[in-house]
UniProtKB/TrEMBL annotation:
Protein name according to UniProt: FERM domain containing 5
Top-rank taxon: Eukaryota
Signal peptide start and end residues: none
PROSITE patterns per the UniProt record, alphabetical: FERM_1, FERM_3
Length: 565
């Protein structure tokens, strides 16, 4: 029996699990890992497949069974982190956006960042004014279909491609005009480099929005960028705090705190798990962008009082070390196989860029995704939250360049429309999204997925009981989780009770130790050394013995009184 148990245990440890990782070009990489394989092992396999050396900017994202997003921790077991049934599905994404993407050493790294920012542009996280949007889209066209050719590109050819959540005819004409007249002769690498340089100047570059509520119950989006902590609320950037001005990040339950030199910002996440994820993202981003060396990284605790809270430590290299390491790379640039961009035949369809492979034998094909397939691919988005453009017609969010020199510059107007990523108000991207749920989500947030959906929404609205139920669920998910005064009082009372409990426990331990020292006959070296000190002898004869006689007298008097009665 023992041998069977041991063999079964060894088989369990040796069991292999299938992992599928969705890459930035929507291709998939599949491998098998052992049960005790760490996240670092899987990440190294993936980077070897991509022939990627500047890998510190990237990470692997997944969604747990409770629909909460996480970054895979490289020092922990993959199987234990995912907590779901195999096969496992994850996503390869940019985790730390380079402060200057054009300064990346290798073209393969720039290309991967290009694919990520192109996704951000499509899903509405990277927002900009119309002229910038047209230029960025024209760079994408030039990189993926080359120079304008009248024989291959008929009138209105730019309308066949989907760059943003919403297009207008005026914007499409502007994209085609720039592509025809200004970008001729640029190679794919040059166009991608120019795209990165332009994207890096935009207000929402590197933003991965975390939906929260402020203390007044107003919706807000929190994000960490290469330059600092950002809060987007309504149509304004209400806070921008540079990393060197952030003194502490803390969370307790659903409440997130950011400490600056003069103020404390408080926000409320939808769930405790979402708040912990927000806190961990903040700790990692601050360490990566702020510190000079990875040796300066310290374990951070979220605890407010005594034993409550979580502990977390960033385990990677910091930005400065990554740049220094990149400068030492000396190898032949790896081959990048780009596939042409496949035009979409209808507005609601989605086209996700070229197929990437740094291995020549790897099969490459461009993907043309219908709206239903698109929703399937969007669920991959442990990172990719599909979001609407807050624009109407051809107006995109204008780019604002401002720095927080003083308190009067904290509020920067982003646009006339609110920054409102539609699905970011959900706790996580939900794998079970259906077409009806996605459309209803967009309608609740005041947006349509495309021109065709906009026309349909004008003629009909969901009136069925099922649609109303779905709407109710979405609205419930969007409800604020702000702390009430009663919750604050309860937290204070619990803190006081914990303090009293710990104090009483310490006093009890001290009293027990005192009784052992004075009354027991234990001849232990530790106790003997204490008893022989002059201080203890003075305490014993001047204080403890009189106090003991007083207690004994009182006890005798009480006992005699009880006997008499």
């Amino acid at each position: 029996m023992l041998s069977r148990l041991m063999s079964g245990s060894s088989r369990s440890l040796e069991r292999e699990y299938s992992c599928t990782v969705r890459l930035l070009d929507d291709s998939e990489y599949t491998c098998t890992i052992q049960r005790d394989a760490k996240g670092q092992y899987l990440f190294d396999l993936l980077c070897h497949h991509l022939n990627l050396l500047e890998k510190d900017y990237f990470g692997i994202r997944f969604v747990d069974p409770d629909k909460q997003r996480h970054w895979l921790e490289f020092t922990k077991s993959v199987v234990k982190q995912l907590r779901s049934q195999p096969p496992f599905t994850m996503c390869f994404r940019v985790k730390f956006y380079p402060a200057d993407p054009a300064a990346l050493k290798e073209e393969i790294t720039r290309y991967l960042v290009f694919l990520q920012i192109k996704r951000d542009l499509y899903h509405g996280r990277l927002l900009c004014k119309t002229s910038d949007a047209a230029l960025l889209a024209a760079y994408i066209l030039q990189a993926e279909i080359g120079d304008y050719d009248p024989g291959k590109h008929p009138e209105g050819y730019s309308s066949k491609f989907q760059f943003f959540p919403k297009h207008s005819e005026k914007l499409e004409k502007k994209i085609a005009e720039i592509h025809k007249t200004e970008l001729s002769g640029q190679t794919p690498a040059t166009s991608e480099l120019n795209f990165l340089r332009k994207a890096q100047t935009l207000e929402t570059y590197g933003v991965d929005p975390h939906p929260c509520k402020d203390v007044s119950g107003n919706a807000a989006f929190l994000a960490f960028t290469p330059f600092g902590f950002v809060v987007l609320q309504g149509n304004k950037r209400v806070h921008f705090i540079k990393w060197n001005e952030v003194t502490k990040l803390k969370f307790e339950g659903k409440t997130f705190y950011l400490y600056e030199k003069k103020i404390i910002l408080t926000y409320f996440a939808p769930t405790p798990e979402a708040c912990k994820h927000l806190w961990k993202c903040g700790i990692e981003n601050q360490a990566f962008y702020k510190l000079e060396k990875s040796s300066q990284v310290r374990t951070v605790s979220s605890s407010n009082l005594f034993f409550k809270g979580s502990r977390f430590r960033y385990s990677g290299r910091v930005a400065k070390e990554v740049m220094e390491s990149s400068a030492k790379i000396k190898r032949e640039p790896p081959e990048i196989h780009r596939a042409g961009m496949v035009p979409s035949r209808s507005c609601p369809s989605i086209t996700h860029g070229p197929r990437l492979s740094s291995v020549p034998r790897t099969r490459r094909r461009a993907v043309h995704i219908s709206i239903m397939e698109g929703l399937e691919s969007l669920r991959d988005s442990a990172h990719s939250t599909p979001v609407r453009s807050s624009s109407h017609g051809d107006t995109f969010l204008p780019h604002v360049r401002s720095s927080r020199a003083d308190s009067n510059e904290r509020v920067a107007v982003i646009a006339d429309e609110a920054y409102s990523p539609a699905d970011s108000v959900l706790p996580t991207p939900v794998a079970e999204h259906s077409l009806e749920l996605m459309l209803l989500s967009r309608q609740i947030n005041g947006a349509t997925c495309s021109i065709e959906e906009e026309k349909e929404s004008e003629t009909s609205t969901p009136t069925s009981t099922e649609a109303e139920a779905l709407g109710g669920e979405l609205r419930a998910l969007c409800q604020g989780h702000g702390g009430s005064e009663q919750e604050q009082v309860n937290k204070f009372v619990l803190s006081v009770l914990r303090l009293l409990l710990v104090t009483v426990g310490l006093l009890f331990v001290l009293l027990l130790l005192l009784i052992i020292l004075t009354e027991s006959d234990l001849d232990v070296a530790f106790f003997r050394d204490i008893r022989q000190t002059p201080e203890f002898e003075q305490f014993h004869y001047q204080y403890f013995c009189p106090l003991r006689r007083w207690f004994a007298c009182k006890i005798r008097s009480v006992v005699s009184l009880l006997i008499d009665t």
